[in-house]
Amino acid sequence: MARREVRWERMFPDELEAAFADRPLVWFAYGLCEPHGPQNAVGLDALKAHAIACAAARAHGGIVAPPDYWHIHEISGYASWAHKNVGEVERTWLTAVPPWRHFNNVLYQIRAAECAGFHAAILITGHYGPNWQDLKTVLEWVQPHVGVRLYGLPDFEANQPGFDGGGRGTGDHAGKVETSLLWALEPECVDVSRIPPVDAPGPHFAMGVNVRESNRLVGERMVADEVRWLGEKADELMAAYAQLEAPSRMLTYADTERVWADAVAPRLNTLKTMQQHWEGREPPPEGSIWRRNWEVPKL
Predict the structure, then answer these.
(1) Cα distance between residue 260 and residue 243, in whole Å
(2) Where are the alpha helices (DSSP H) in 24-169?
(3) I need a surface site. Which of 52, 222, 229, 256 has the fewest CB within 10 A?
(4) Is residue 150 within 8 Å of 121, Cβ to Cβ?
(5) Cβ atoms within 10 A of the Cβ of 183, count?
(6) What is the tens place of the pLDDT at every residue in 1-24?
(7) For residues 97 and 72, is the Cβ–Cβ distance under 8 A?
(8) Residues 6+ apart with CB under 8 A from 29
(9) What is the domain partition of the chain in residue ranges?
(10) CATH class belonging to 8-273
C-alpha cells in the first residue's frame, strides 16, 4: 500500500516532488507549549494546528511544514492573563518568544516556501490572543514582496459552525472547544480523568471553566468542518496565483532581511501584541513571575 504521508520532515525526496507536482501548496502550523490545564498536553496549540493542517493536506493536497512550537507569550496582556489564569507556579513549561522574534521566523518560513516554488501557503495558529490578528497584518505587509499567495488564520476561524453547531467559529483556552479538538486529533494527549472536582480551588494551570462539556465526537465534527473550510480557502489561493503574470520572489537571506527592514520593522510597534495594555489588562503585580517580561520595548 502506498504511503499517504504529508509531513515535510517525514517524506522522502521523491514523495515531496510528487506531492508538489500534484499541488504546490504548503501548510504552516504555529503554537507553543504553555499551560492548558491538567487534562491536556502542554503543546496543545501547535499539536492542534499541525494535526488540522495534516488532515487538510490529506484531503486537499499540499505539504505540511514542520510545526513551530515557539510563539508569543509572557509580554503585555499575555503576562496579565497568565498571572490570573496560571498563577505563581515554579515552572510554566512555556516555549515563548517575543513578537518581533516570532514574526521574523515566520518571514523566513515564507522565504522557504518561495525557494521551493509553492503557489500558496496557509498559516494556521492554534495560539490565541491578538497574535493571530498580527499574523494577518504581517502577511498583508509581506504579500506584495512575494509570489506565494498567503493566508493566515487562527484555527477557530475555520471552525464553523463551532462547538454547538449554531454560529460562527469559536475558540477557548483549555475548555470544551480546545480539549474536544485535541481529544479528536491527538487522543493520547488528553486525559479527562485529570480534571479536578468542580469544587477544587484553582486556578488549575489555565484550565477552561467549561472543560467538563468536552466531547471527543463533537471534536471530530469540528475537525471535519475545519478541513472543509480550509479546502475552500486553498482553492481560492491557488486560483489567485494562477492569475499572476510575473510573481515576485524573495529567495535569498538578503532579500528576506530587506523585506523585514522595509515592510515589517518600521511598523512593528503598531502590532496589537506590541501594545502595553491590550484589552485594558492591568500589569501583573510587582514580584510576580509574570512581571519580568510584561513591559513592551519600543523598537
Answers:
(1) 26
(2) 44-60, 77-85, 99-116, 131-142
(3) 229
(4) yes
(5) 23
(6) 456 899 999 999 999 999 999 999
(7) yes
(8) 46, 49, 50, 52, 53, 64, 65, 67, 68, 124, 125, 126
(9) 8-273
(10) alpha beta
Q: What share of the chain is helix, strand, coil (3-state, %, to 5)?
A: 50, 10, 40
Which residue type is seen at 119?
Answer: H
Cell, residue 65: 511544514
Q: Which DSSP state fits 66?
A: P
- Please tell me the pTM assigned to this model: 0.97
Q: Among 92, 91, 42, 36, which residue's Cα sits nearest to residue 69?
A: 42
Cell triple for 58:
490529506
Q: Are 142 and 152 in contact (CB under 8 A)?
A: no
**What pLDDT is attached to residue 4?**
83
Residue 165 CB neighbours (<10 A): 11
Query: Which residues in 142-286 belong to E strands, given as ranges?
Result: 149-154
Say how far apart CA 287 and CA 181 lie, in whole Å. 36
Q: Which of 113, 155, 115, 111 is nearest to 132 (CA)?
A: 155
